[in-house]
Amino acid sequence: MALPTSCSVLVVGSGNAGFCAAVAAKQAGAEDVVLIEKAPESWAGGNSYFTAGAYRTVHGGAKDLLPLVNNVDESMAKNIDIDPYTEQDFLDDMQRVCGGRSDPALTNTLVKDSLGTMRWLKENGVRFQLSFNRQAYEVGGRIKFWGGLALKTEDGGKGLIADHMANALRQGIKIFFSTPLERLWIDPATGALQGVVVCHLGVPALIKAGAVVLAAGGFESNPRLRAQLLGPAWDLAKVRGTPHNTGEVLEIAIRDAHAKQVGNWSGCHAVAWDFNAPANAGDREVSNEFTKSGYPLGLMFNTKGERFVDEGLDLRNYTYAKFGRAIIVQPGQCAFQIWDQRTIPWLRAEEYRPERVRRIMADTISDLADKLVPLGLQDREAFIDNVNRYNEAVYAFQREHPDKIWNPSILDGLSTQSSSTKLRIAKSNWALPLDQGPFMAVQVTCGITFTFGGLAVNPETAQVISSITDKGVDNLFCCGEMVGGLFYENYPGGSGLTSGAVFGRRAGTAAARAASQRES
User: What fold is seen in the domain 269-447?
Assistant: First the structure.
């Protein structure tokens, strides 16, 4: 297929947001929609391919979610508990988790559009399921979902991109890989976008476009920009996803269209990641299984033998992006997660099975410490002492609160902080003793997912805002990780894919409208 010289709407980026924008543009009447991707087809999907496929959405409980999913039959549905997740719940989570800094208008759009967008995605072939493996525990014989997050895609990010690709081809969208954006063609007299310059298979080409949607990701795969913008040691973080999100499209928009820069440019989403994972790109076979998110069930130590986070601060959905960042500032960008026999069976197999991660097993904490020393544990005695201190604090709390029951699906209040004993860093929930061997440890580092700084957009249309006029740049739109102002320091799990879909859909619809107006 030859690269066209013109099109109605051109989308830059083949992730969740880009595909949503392209499909929305086509459905809004854009006759000729072209999607370009910098990466070769073997890296299609950007970071979306590497996700677990979780979407955070407003819902009224099972009555709203079960019609969307394909993995629950009538008999199973009777044994499932899913509390409603209201608009206010979603708004409160954004406010709390992001420190009250999220742009209110963007947040309102994200929240109010979420359920309608999930239904639209299903209509467009995205196969949703209830996330039993990641977001539910069996408690008292019933399957209880927790953390406001129950919806995922079949086969995670791999399945999501396969569904998006198939739908785009059905819709007649033309897709060109190995075609990076090089320049936005802006009319110097009007400031309106006229088209783009790309490099297709190594050859420069000009494409006139009625409108352009930028959906090319952040700068998380660029170690120089990470060190410059996120701070010291961030060049050493491991890349969870595509190696192609290196930030040049952000720079192009700022340079050529004077796009306004907003958001948390020193912030990012990062997770506890397998220490032995590849450094500069994710593995498309292993994908999200390098994530190591079982820390609420155990403890996490740095190489000095010290705990450095409250593993029970909140439900995992609200802490994993923040705790990944905490690992990067530890000595050697390294930490050890440990569990005993009480909780090892509760760990997710896809993350912790022996085929996926190096499991360090020992009959005693002393023996475990001996095995961790060659892996970087610097203070063996401190590690042993801090495990013992933790156990003493847990037992002291249990003596004062014998009525407290461990329940990993809620904030159960089982803590290390009693009137007689308090740790410097608490474990505020799910604090069980760690003294039943054999014990297990895994070594983790920081895996970066996506960056938070981005471009200012109109919340209704996702039109890019000019830093010169503070008004929209005609015919230029933006969605996905490139949107700034939503997330600060942290984010509620699953809201990234939802943001990409909500604003991708809006950007594509508005781009089709802008292209139609130009043609008429």
Answer: Flavocytochrome C3; Chain A, domain 1 (3.90.700)
